[in-house]
Amino acid sequence: MEMKKALLRLTCLGLFAPFIAAAGGPTPLDTWSFEYAPTNWNWASDGGYLPLSFTNLDYSYLGDGTAVVLDSTNAAWLHYPITNSNGGTELPVSDGTVVFWVAPFWASTNQSGTGPGVSSRLIEVGAYSSDASAGWWSIFTDEGGNTLNFSSADGNGCQTNYISVPISWITNRWHQIALTYSSDAASNTALYLDGQWITNGPPTTCLPGSDALTNGFYIGSDSNGIAQIHGMFDDLFTYDHPLTSNEIASLFNKYVAQYWLNPLNEPANIVSGPSSPTNVPTFVAITGTGFLTNATAASPCLTSTNPWFTNLVARPVVTNGTNWTTTLSFTIAGGSNGIAYDVLATPAPLAVGSITNWQWSWMGQGYHCTNYTIFGLPPTGAFLVLGGPQDSDSDGLTDAYELLVSKTDPHNPSTSGDGIQDGWKYLWGLNQFLNNPAQSGLRENFSYFPEGWLSGVSGAKSETVRTDAEGNVTGN
What we know:
Number of strands: 24
CATH class of the largest domain: Mainly Beta
CATH architecture of the largest domain: Sandwich
Shape: globular
Mean pLDDT: 85
Radius of gyration: 28 Å
Helix content: under 10%
């Protein structure tokens, strides 16, 4: 946990300017950018309104500047009033829009991760009760991190789940979530992910009453601080009316680069190395030296059942005056002769739980008793592991690669069940989780039409076939 927190607190060196509300767009009721000086973490909104309470919060520079982190083994919450000290509404529950960014420290179970382990609350008013006896309004995930939901209850027995959509998230990957909602019977609710419309739901009907509203709303957890997002939360916007799809897309486009192209963010940091697939003596889809360079023999040479890294040296390298990367040199020790070991890297072990939750990249394959160098690793550092050659399902991908990089099933050669091996899908650029033959856009789609049918004939006809002087076949 301490290592994770240290990584979260890496200085951003002014990579991005503080968050600024979208100029020229719709005016929000309030925004929460969580941009504070390190000595002034009061968690106030950008409008200057303080939270009612908070506990066990952390922060990260892996978002747009800074982001609030709720990921504690103890109760953690961030609690704001629905009506601010000037009488203005901070979060309307009947008609409005909420837009915010989240990044989990977990991967969905459909990505071979563990999910949050709880029905994590992103934004919540009131509290859930199985009989709808309590007022409730919530945007939340399921325990496996496979669905995103919007529900509410009025506290008098009326409860509705307006929206439930599948998600498949990986750790540390930022997503923009936008929800529009209206109590107008002629209107609807709508969910957008990363600027794209996903689905509509019915208008809001079962709305929490004053008892729930006077208790305010929570960001990143429930009122008990248990159902935490276990991740990062940033840039919340609230509006008093439903935004249009164009307005939501505009908000996404204005700020997506600050999340997805931030050099401290995972998606921009480590890419997999180039592979040289082979089918001799067996099919191997991912093989070769990749990004591993400067291979020299190491002495003395130790052998063992298991391999390990030793002699690690990390050096910062400054490019273009301000940008910098890390060059890592190491030796693969132990192991056995003639075995190629996968070198796998992740930007930083930010997630709790199994390492299969983290997003890994393949750096290349190396052999024991050899020194290697990798250039261009992220300035924040990296976490590396070695993977063995075992390929339990003979699909051309090692078990280590499937568990960590592709998140496919190492014991099923065709994870999607369509009969195409996972290794071949990698080489062909196909989605390893889709039934690809069932996708019409990936098929040659033939159709029959009368002009193409063969015409029936009757009787008999003969013809003499011979060759001409040049050897061409001719007939009568």
